[in-house]
Specification:
Radius of gyration of chain B: 15 Å
Oligomer: heterooctamer
CATH class of chain B: Alpha Beta
CATH superfamily of chain C: Thiamin diphosphate (ThDP)-binding fold, Pyr/PP domains
Helix content of chain B: 40-55%
Shape of chain C: globular
CATH architecture of chain C: 3-Layer(aba) Sandwich
Number of strands of chain B: 6
Low-confidence stretches of chain B: none
Order of helices and strands of chain C: HHEEHEHHEHEHEHHEHEH
Distance between the termini of chain B: 17 Å
CATH superfamily of chain B: Pyruvate-ferredoxin oxidoreductase, PFOR, domain III
Largest sheet of chain C: 8 strands, mixed
Number of domains of chain B: 1
Bound molecules: thiamine diphosphate, iron/sulfur cluster, magnesium ion
Strand content of chain C: 15-25%
Chains: A alpha/beta, B alpha/beta, C alpha/beta, D alpha+beta
Strand order of the largest sheet of chain C: 2-1-3-4-6-5-8-7
Structural class of chain C: alpha/beta
Number of domains of chain C: 1
Strand content of chain B: 15-25%
Radius of gyration of chain C: 18 Å
Mean pLDDT of chain B: 91
CATH topology of chain C: Rossmann fold
Chain lengths: 384, 179, 272, 70, 272, 384, 179, 70
């Protein structure tokens, strides 16, 4: 993307709304909750200016429902929340997964569990983003580290959601959400926008809303009110959209939902490697924590320590390959997260015993500092 | 005193407009062509007690966005001074309001009648934050005078531009009188 | 099935899943006839439901249909309607779906006066899960979770709707179908949030648990216990016990939500 | 509507034998055969269509398929 | 603080977190005085809230106190009351907590007529999250999420409570404190579900966003716009616009939930 | 436990209620949902007979709230649900975790996601049981395979929940919940019941509800209405129960919550090994699936195949040690689950590359059959 | 024909009481001192269409609780017969009602007027399930006669004991008439 | 209650200077000093205690600590 806007100071939550509008969001339903509230407030002000709709619903469950309804009716739709609200949205997120309704759900993480620490940062919802709703389901989760990245990633969240017809979670944290940072926004014309795939109705005799016409696992989508009546249900359904309890229908549907994601890992997964070519120790991180890691790695490299960083931009589907493709020099992986140890289990499964996997965890309401990363790396390298 | 990375902590209590002051400093730095981030800390949910804004300015990428060893601290309350006085960069300075009781610290303290100036000279205690911005800018030159003026005009409510400009200048003057 | 109505149904999905004598089919038929009578544009109709026997209705109807999560039909419907105010949005829901788990969405949709018509299939029971009491089960009635008789008082749904802000509120029964069709027609024509509570019968669970006999017996009860709003006004309180008051309770012209939102858009765009 | 066009059709496959049409036809047009409704008294029919709109299974059509239903 | 009242407070937690002039402190004080006036057994009182500025009140009160999740106070309270009917259960909640996310629990608690007293701190805004509109925000008012003016109609909470089945329903304000204390006393003495909606003031958000001026100005507004239930009955409809009707709206004797449940237990044990 | 009752035919859901009542449950709040509904129905009938309370709440969120309230008021309390309701309960489950209110939550799993397959079995909520609510939190999850085990495990769920002051999830599946099976119930007098630890108030000057008086991480509990007023909040709190945003308070609280579980793995974790002494391949399984595995293993052993089974009775905390302590003969682990592959990731993390970890997954609404297990084991052994 | 494990599948449509029949057979097996499990399959949510109950009886532990290759199938509808007729244990038998159309199957089919007997001889079509239990018991001896009688008395609604006993005997008789 | 026992106490630490007591005392007993309420006219006080019950910060006690509040 080419930079054209003047540099300006922008808050992470604001960048999220701007990115969403740039991506084509024209519907927002939400319920305020710290530290995501600014997203609702800015959406309320900005959306009607571009002809879009904002509604504050009675709770998070309703917000998620309204977002799905609006998306089915043809508008790109988003909601934003934080931990307690994210828990409440889970049932309807599962509905969107199964019915393949594109939508973006922002979770600006705060300290948990329960009401927890509303104004303090944490990264404690990272496993919930994957497993929060019941049953097997596909999901995409992205996690930005910079305000500018919030803008870009919100667009990407919409693009992936529209393309794969799957809810996309933008997993921010309080630090990134509330941070104001210098950003230069790209020329709107340069932004790549993906819209949901539409069927060529002239070529289709009868539109089956869940038929994999193109063999890519993604059924083309007609919006409600476009003259093609069809049925959408949260029950397991066949290609016609109607419920079925046949084992083969269930198996096919669940497999297809998973395949949409699993067949496209290369496109969906994004990460940043930093000094990993020859690193003995690699720090895996995401969100605001990654910024501390970068600083620490810069400092340690100046000291000559062989340390690198793997910053996960896509968290789910998990970038197993990125872990497995770390160079043979790498012996240790430190997983730095603002939680009691969540992603570390998944990294552990990836590592398959090849790496020594160590956690750097902080769960006291404060961002992990570069010093803490440095200390941990030194400790690990000493022990090695 | 401009280094690669300058950290500023503005501290006091809710309602003193410290977050706006932080935003103005950060925005001014951007207008100067630098990089800047601003963050803040909140009380429980969104209200009450102590308030704190932090700004990091740099010519480089800003990785870690939080303030650890600030070069500059502004403390408008005793509580704020006591909480933060012992943790600055080696050459750091602490700016305190005249209403604040000086305290032991290895760092340089500059005491100025910021709140009083706002209330009595400008006539609106509300603009103490802008007086403080003037003081910081004059004292540390972290941002240029024009940039900070433009940043203020951009961020303050319409109709209060002149008032705020006056407050800024008053801040400069306080520093000038020092030397 | 009458030929002229076939286009409204998904004929291939019939016969429906409902038990013999279940009132839900009667209400579904009444909705279709009301739509047909008004000659509404079929393609612009969107029918939304939650989960329950009643909420299965949209599956049989040949419109844009959405079978959501339990209790949430009105939340989804609100999203659809606000996104596409030109669509006619109809919610078909059960007493459990609407007043138990969905109660909050119901009162808030009433409050906003968003232009949605809600038809509540009230059979006084959770039919789909085999007969637990609902917030509409009468005091003293039996249900699988009220083996000693129900001590939960029931809502007066029409009162609740009106107090919450609905601007058209009426009640019908599956016995009084001609009136029911008329009421639904009026609700569909009303600008704003309209509620039609319809007393249905669930012979399989409510009927059996309470020894009410055959569907015919249950229909007779509806016939014999119903009185009109007008008659009710004159009736002494004591006699009202166990009576079902049917007819129109409330009608009001008030600003409709999506229209008000269009004004917001104008204001926002004008301000720039 | 001409007389000869007129009929009361019951779709046997759809009918679930609930008995509602039988019980509530004001003119007792139907009788019950093993719970199945049978038209026994077509001449009495006033075409009120109550049976049609009360049938939970859309199994009855009164007055011919193309009859205007209004 | 008056010595005789100190035992009701957690003195070490004061001064409280609320902003200067916030009405929530006035309501909290009124609740304490009502309890004191009635000489209720302190140890048998349990105070439950959700989340919000208002819901912080229990933290300052020296009873069994429970600060639950947002909107769910009445659900938790129902569990406590049914488990221990001898406890006096009081719910302190905000307009957002009670009528937005908590709306369903509210109408169902009303319906069951469970012996809980609910005091709603209605400041017409979500205070804690810095000023979004609530279901009680008046039409046209400004809020951070209603930058062009609010188009959501508000509930009449007292009407809603009554229509849902509450058996004591009254409204007070933080200006009319002597009456408020009396109302709360009556609510506490009432057997069944009692609701006291109290108009509070939020100078920080609702006041500022709507340019209503100081806490004193907002108190004056409450004073000048309030009329009694009796006066309201005689007033022509046009004049009622923007008026706050205060006093008792409804009182009824009806079977209370936990007492009815005790009868179930007797019946079940008798049957064996 | 000594067997004394006559053998009788009992349904899994019924055994759950009977176990709960035997454990001392005197409060049930719920909202019906297939396939858990019988639990509510039987509780409604049984509880008043023993002087307990049953209430049908307006939804699952309210049910969970009422259960926590009742438990705080001193009654042992339970709720039961299935997938969609389990999703809705998550926010309040997190509240119970943080406030340390004992309670039992039964999830009789059905096909998911969303409304899914209400009447068909699945094991798709196993990760949700661990990660369904936001933020770091402790949780215990048990999973029974037999009707008699449902009875015993419900008692154990109450015991563990009371002892550790943590919500305990009883993760059933439709097969076990609806199965009727011959059971002989133990003599009530022989059943070991654990009640929440109570403080000796005569020895405590001022009762701090969250003080670790005994150094075991478990604060003794006073019930509401016992004359000791205290405060309970879902915010992070110090030992007095009042909110705090101090980093050290947050860190201490979260660590203590986790420590309660992590220090007592040996007591909490329970599993059954079957023919694992010399097994080359071990099938890991739980719930109803394990019954197919046992049959398959019996058949394969007759053929002389070196195959064993590890049946997880405690799922969370995960029995890593049980995996790691498999004998040196073991090369392959097959994880058999009625889902798309959930626990397999956790087994993978345990395995650390030592074992070849293979999934046997079925997600079509049918129980995995012994034949399928046999085929998979043969395939794995052939490849090995 | 009693083997280590006997699997029975009772199939028909909702409302025919097949689940109760399954429960009675399982309970009778337990009274006989055996092990037994009973399961069923449901339509969408809890209603409609086909209904099916399954019973496994064994002297041993019952691991896998579902029926795969039943020794005995009862089919009260055409649909049920066609669905299940091709999947039995080698020596399995299929019992069908007279109203059911015989179909091609490698297994032995026994056709008896179960529903008619209930309706016409006992006077209540509702007890066809108990007639069927009688038929199965008489034909296969999977459970003892006393056990099944006791199981019935335990599970049927009060006041209907005699009726159900009559139905059971009628089932036995149907089989006796066969031989 | 004897005269000498009587006082109007304002807890300065608790007071957040909202001005409510000053504005609504029917007898204008308070005046404002930098927003701080000061008792300037104690003799006019009727002990109606409106100031006490309206103070959001529990900062006022009228009539002496041990005075019966009823
Ligand atoms: C979240 C959730 N909770 C519970 C259920 C189970 N459930 C399905 S339908 C229903 C009740 C339906 O009652 P009602 O709306 O009155 O419809 P009816 O079947 O009586 O027509 C329940 C409790 C569910 N599907 N989802
Ligand atoms: C599930 C959930 N959603 C949202 C929030 C954020 N939140 C906290 S308090 C509140 C509104 C409070 O409003 P009200 O009850 O009116 O209390 P007030 O602060 O105005 O007294 C909101 C939206 C939350 N804590 N939990
Ligand atoms: S169970 Fe009741 S509501 Fe459901 S289809 Fe049958 S009769 Fe109708
Ligand atoms: S009303 Fe319909 S379903 Fe019922 S008996 Fe008559 S035709 Fe059959
Ligand atoms: S149309 Fe009327 S009169 Fe004719 S059969 Fe039907 S109900 Fe009877
Ligand atoms: S924000 Fe409003 S409601 Fe909250 S404490 Fe301040 S004045 Fe009171
Ligand atoms: S009312 Fe209370 S807080 Fe307000 S000024 Fe008076 S004493 Fe101070
Ligand atoms: S008691 Fe009454 S008169 Fe006396 S100071 Fe207070 S408000 Fe004024
Ligand atoms: Mg119902
Ligand atoms: Mg409020």
């Amino acid at each position: 993307m080419t930079m054209t806007s003047k540099p300006r100071l922008m808050q992470g939550n604001e960048a999220c709304v701007e990115g969403a509008i740039a991506a084509g969001m024209r519907f927002y339903a939400g319920y305020p909750i710290t530290p995501s509230t600014e997203i609702a407030e800015i959406a309320a002000e900005r959306l009607p200016k571009v002809g879009g709709k904002f509604i504050q619903m009675e709770d998070e469950i309703a917000s998620m429902g309204a977002v799905i309804g609006a998306s089915l009716a043809g508008l790109k739709a988003m909601t934003a929340t934080s931990g307690p609200g994210f828990s409440l949205k889970q049932e309807n997120i599962g509905f969107a997964c199964l019915t393949e309704v594109p939508c973006v759900v922002v979770d600006v993480q705060r300290g948990g569990p329960s009401t927890g620490q509303p104004t303090l940062p944490a990264q404690g919802d990272v496993m919930q983003a994957r497993w929060g709703t019941h049953g097997d389901h596909p999901i995409i989760t992205l996690s930005p580290s910079y305000v500018r990245e919030v803008f870009d990633m919100t667009i990407r969240a919409f693009n992936l959601s529209e393309k794969y017809r799957v809810p996309c979670i933008l997993l921010m944290d309080e630090v990134v959400g509330h941070l104001r940072e210098r950003v230069e926004l790209p020329d709107p014309a340069s932004i790549k926008i993906i819209n949901r795939k539409r069927p060529d109705l002239s070529k289709i005799e009868y539109y089956n809303p869940y038929q994999d016409y193109d063999g890519d696992g993604i059924p083309p989508m007609v919006n409600f009110g476009e003259g093609v009546p069809y049925h959408v249900t949260g029950l397991i359904h066949d290609i016609t959209g109607f419920p079925s309890t046949k084992p083969e229908v269930t198996e096919y549907l669940i497999s297809r939902l998973m395949r949409k994601i699993n067949d496209n890992l290369d496109e969906i997964i994004d990460y940043e490697k930093f000094y990993t070519e020859d690193s003995e120790t690699v720090v895996v991180s995401f969100g605001s924590t990654a910024r501390s890691v970068i600083r620490a790695v810069k400092i340690l490299r100046r000291e000559g320590q062989k340390v690198g960083m793997l910053r996960l931009k896509t968290i789910w589907p998990f970038p197993h390959k990125a872990i497995q493709e770390l160079p043979p020099t790498t012996k240790n992986i430190i997983v730095a997260e603002m939680n009691f140890g969540q992603l570390i289990e998944v990294v552990g499964a990836s590592a398959k015993g090849r790496f020594n996997v160590i956690g750097l965890n902080k769960y006291n309401g404060e961002l992990i500092s570069p010093d803490e990363v440095i200390a941990k790396v030194r400790e690990v390298n000493k022990n090695a | 005193m401009m280094e690669e990375r300058v950290e500023i902590r503005l501290s006091g209590s809710g309602g003193q407009g410290l977050i706006l002051a932080g935003i103005i400093l950060a925005e001014a730095a951007i207008l100067d062509g630098k990089n800047a981030v601003q963050s803040q800390s909140y009380g429980p949910e969104a209200r009450g007690g102590a308030s704190r804004a932090e700004v990091v300015i740099s010519n480089d990428e800003i990785d870690y966005p939080k303030v650890t060893k600030p070069q500059v601290i502004l403390a408008l309350t005793n509580e704020a001074l006591n909480k933060f006085k012992d943790n600055l960069a080696p050459d750091g300075i602490i700016i305190i309001d005249s209403s604040v009781k000086k305290a032991d610290t290895p760092y340089k303290i500059v005491q100025l009648p910021i709140i009083e100036t706002a209330r009595d000279r400008i006539g609106r205690s509300m603009v103490a934050n802008i007086v403080a911005v003037g003081v910081i800018t004059a004292l540390t030159k972290v941002v240029s005078r024009e940039a900070v003026e433009r940043a203020i005009l951009k961020r303050v409510p319409k109709g209060t531009e002149e008032l705020n400009k006056k407050a800024l200048y008053a801040g400069y003057e306080l520093v000038n009188q020092l030397t | 099935m009458r030929k002229s109505l076939e286009k409204y149904y998904r004929i291939d999905k019939l016969p429906h899943i409902w038990c013999p004598g279940c009132g839900h089919g009667i209400i579904t038929g009444a909705v279709v006839r009301a739509i047909d009578n008004l000659k509404l544009d079929k393609d612009k109709i969107c029918i939304v439901s939650g989960i329950g026997c009643s909420s299965r209705a949209p599956g049989y109807l040949n419109f844009n249909t959405l079978h959501t999560t339990h209790g949430r039909a009105l939340a989804f419907a609100t999203g659809i309607k606000l996104a596409r105010p030109d669509l006619k949005v109809i919610v078909l829901t059960g007493d459990g779906d609407c007043t138990a788990i969905g109660g909050n969405h119901f009162i808030h949709a009433c409050r906003r006066n968003i232009d949605i018509t809600t038809v509540v299939f009230n059979n006084s029971i959770y039919g789909m899960t085999s007969g637990q009491y609902s917030p509409m089960t009468p005091l003293g009635a039996y249900a699988t979770t009220a083996p000693y008789g129900n001590i939960d008082r029931n809502f007066d749904l029409c009162k609740l709707a009106q107090a919450s802000g609905a601007t058209y509120v009426a009640r019908g029964t599956v016995y009084h179908v001609p009136q029911l069709i008329k009421i639904i027609e009026k609700a569909l024509q009303h600008k704003g949030f309209s509620v039609v509570e319809t007393l249905s019968i669930c012979p399989t669970y409510f009927g059996r648990k309470n020894k009410l006999g055959s569907p015919v017996k249950m229909m007779e009860m509806l016939r014999d216990n119903s009185i009109t709003v007008k008659a009710a006004e004159k009736m002494p309180r004591e006699e009202m016990v166990n009576k079902i008051v049917i007819g129109e309770f409330f009608e009001e012209n008030a600003p409709e939500y999506t229209e008000e939102y269009m004004k917001i858009i104008q204001r926002a765009q004008g301000e720039e | 509507m001409s007389e000869k066009n007129f009929e009361i059709k019951i779709n046997e496959k759809a009918c679930k034998r609930c008995g509602i049409c039988i019980a509530f036809c004001p003119k007792k047009v139907f009788s019950s055969e093993n719970d199945k409704p049978v038209v026994v008294n077509p001449d009495a029919c006033t075409k009120c269509k109550l049976c049609e709109i009360r049938c939970p299974d859309f199994a009855i059509v009164v007055g011919g398929d193309d009859d205007d239903d209004k």
